[in-house]
Amino acid sequence: MFRRIYTNRFFLLFIVLFAYAQSIYTRILIRNELSWYIFTPDGAVSTLFNALILFAVMRYFTVLFLSV
What we know:
Layout: H1 2-7, H2 9-31, H3 42-66
Helix pairs in contact: 2-3
């Protein structure tokens, strides 16, 4: 499993950076102000967690349906 993560590390890095940029953009768009809270990485971490769950579900169903 860790070897697969190591192979796809740039894809995971892209997901984290994109999620971080998206959370900053959304917070600036909604609040219309700059503060220290905008740059906290909690939005990126939760988006990465959600993406990992989505990838696990997709992998499960692809293995399930393609093995038949």
